Amino acid sequence: MWKFIVRRLVITFPQLILLSVLIFLLAQAMPGDALTGLVDPNIDPETIEEQREKLGLNKPWYEKYIDWVGGVVQGDFGQSFRYKMPVTDLIEERIVNTFWLSVTALIFTYIIAVPLGMISGRYNDTILDSSIAGYTYIGFATPLFIFALVLLWIFGFHFQWFPTGGSVAPGLEPGTLEYVMSRIQHLILPALSIAIIQTVSTVQYLRSEIVDTKQKDFVITARAKGASESRVYNRHILRNSLLPIAAFFGYEITMLITGTIFVEQIFSFPGMGQLFIESVLQRDFSVVNAVVLLFGAAAILGALLSDIILSMVDPRIRIK
Amino acid sequence: MELDKKETQSQQNMEHNSTGLRILWTELVRDKLALVSLIMLIVIVVFVYGISFVMDQDEIVKVDLFSIHEPPSKEFILGTDYGGRDVFGQLIIGTRNSLSIGFIVTFLSGVIGVIFGLVAGYFGGHIDNILMRVLDFFQVLPFIMLVIVFVSIVPNYTIVAFSLIFTAFSWMGIARLIRSKALQEKELDYVQASKTLGTSHFKIIFREVMPNISSLIIVTMTLNLASNIGLESGLSFLGFGFPESTPSLGTLLSYATNPQTLENRWWIWVPAAVMILVLMLAVRNVGEALRRATDARQRKG
To answer: Residues A34-69: pLDDT tens digits?
Structure first.
């Protein structure tokens, strides 16, 4: 067990370092540096050169890299060129929104996936199963952004059940019940559109897992013992099929990242994904780097988490 | 009578000895849904590429301020967009561009993925270990973000640059699949025999192992084509695919980020959305039928 975790960690650290090098090199390739936009163009070049020397911008790239990593570890991502404020503060505002969006989307994903997977696994090859298969078939082929647009069109504009943009109605006091309700109402539609598309693979996986488990010996034993059909399914089969699914949530982070980028753009939801697209369009590269680094690190750590949980659940993975 | 019997027998023999490609074909014909999808795809491809020969792309993307946001009429079958450009023309050109980029990226990432997977799987051991760690790294990265960052910093951005960037981050899935197949394949007798005979590694990999897994390669690339069309339209939707002078299906959908267009001018974005859905479902149907064909247990006939 511990050997596996240590071995898995040994792979994770080079991944993180490689990610940071990649982003640093990208940053070097991007136009402009820390002084761009801060300096009055009328100052003579010699003074600028002096400043560059003082800030360490003329050092070789590996020294610059070490300086940059030192800053990042302490939570210093530099200045936003556009907002003229530290990137850390900018991200702090947005990351809370994206965090809640992702959590809601994950909850919806499992709320949809578990019953559907159970039904189509238990009653496999019936009409119920084939209608669920129809849903997964369409869901697999529908790109998230089209689905989100259609949801926004139908429920946002046509029926006007949900707000069409933002993360909270303007003019509400933070902390009041109304404020919280408004936030939740703004979350539902974007989170639901991510969940309905993302859940498709989980439903299929759970179905085949249950169909597999159904024929195992312990299920026959449970039936022979006289356990009722619902007890067999809800206690014996579900428990065994659910664990691998629960462990996958670390991998889902990569999918959630992609999802939030599209959905935040469509619902003009002020989160990290929208910040990312805005910053790329406005060439605010210090923000872009910070967002890519954070999301990349989140994806790497998510995969690590999933692998560790999976190895606890399924000992076969440890032997490799 | 006897002749007839002989003929059917030889036919049965033929079928029995049919090659991988032949099995793929018979399975495709037996599965009606896949056959219809394939015919529809061919019709769409011929129609779209044929018409775009006649139509002039510059003519279609030319701004005409006198006919902004016109609903569908006789002159404009699908109305016009915010620049007075004919939506139907853009749909045709967009479908052509989306399909082309889908084909290019699928081919390029297929080539890289197949070579990578074959080399890792065939040699195994340390080479496999190192290559797989590289692959792990690429696979865990958020694909969309890196493509967007690269697209935004590339100087003189062209379609070639876009397809190369796209390819650089989308070869991992097929590589992993081919590698696991190659790991099994290299244990088989024919590979061992070739090794004993002193055939070079290069020749064993590309002349012997690769033809043996060609059906898997075809299947995976077909399924990848569907997802690549979806990803490309997604990137164009966000504004990081083609430049606006070369419309894609995603470009038409991106007009729907304007609430006015989304609510009142369905003719601009609904056809493109339906087109993407139809293309992805059709390609997937064909791909799934081919996938069943490669697995003898799941074959229909």
So the answer is: 555 566 666 677 777 776 666 666 677 777 788 888
Q: Which residues of chain A are at the B interface, by a Cβ-Cβ cutoff of 8 Å? A: 11, 14-15, 18-19, 26, 29-31, 138, 140-146, 149-150, 152-153, 157-158, 164, 254, 257-258, 261-262, 265-266, 276-277, 280-281, 283, 288, 291-292, 295-296, 299-300, 303
Mean pLDDT of A286-315: 85
ipTM above 0.90, yes or no: no
Rounded CA separation A207/A217 (Å): 19
- Alpha-carbon Rg for chain A, nearest whole angstrom, is 25
Instruction: Decide if pLDDT at B191 tops 60.
Output: yes
Q: At A106, phi and psi to the nearest 5?
A: -65, -45
The residue to which tokens 């959908």 are assigned: B253
What's at A103, amino acid-wise?
A: V
What fold is seen in the domain A2-318?
A: MetI-like fold (1.10.3720)
Instruction: State the alpha helices, DSSP H only, in chain A.
Output: 2-29, 45-55, 61-73, 87-122, 127-141, 144-151, 177-214, 217-225, 229-231, 238-247, 252-266, 272-281, 285-313
- Is residue A81 within 8 Å of residue A164, measured between CB atoms? no
The more confidently predicted of residues B10 and A108 is A108
The answer to whether B23 and B56 have CB atoms below 8 angstroms apart is no
Helices A238-247 + A285-313 axis angle, to 10: 150
Question: With bands split at pLDDT 50, 70 and 90, how would you rate the model's confidence at B83?
Answer: low
Contact A292 B142 (CB under 8 A): yes
Q: Residues A163-177, buried b or exposed e (16+ Cβ, 10 A)?
A: bbeebbeeeeeeeee
Residue B125 at interface with chain A, using a CB cutoff of 8 Å:
no
Q: Is the pLDDT of residue B250 over 90?
A: no
What one-character DSSP code corresponds to residue B206? I
List all residues 6 or more positions away from B102 whose beta carbon is below 8 Å from its beta carbon: B225, B228, B229, B232
Window B:236-255, CB contacts with A under 8 Å: 237-240, 253
Residue A4: pLDDT band (50, 70, 90) is confident
B36: number of Cβ within 10 Å: 13
Tell me the pLDDT band of A141, cut-offs 50, 70 and 90.
confident
For the whole model, what pTM was predicted? Answer: 0.83
**Residue whose C-alpha is closest to residue A198's, from A301, A105, A117:** A105
Mean pLDDT of B82-100: 81
Give B91-141 as a DSSP string.
Answer: HHHHHHHHHHHHHHHHHHHHHHHHHHHHHHHHH-HHHHHHHHHHHHHHHHS
From A15's Cα to the closest Cα of chain B, the distance in A is 6
Burial class (CB in 10 A: 0-12, 13-18, 19+), A233: buried
Six-digit token pair at A131?
């209608």
Q: Which of B37, B108, B141 is nearest to A21 (CA)?
A: B141
Single-letter amino acid, residue B4: D
Rounded Cα distance, A206 and B284, in Å: 22
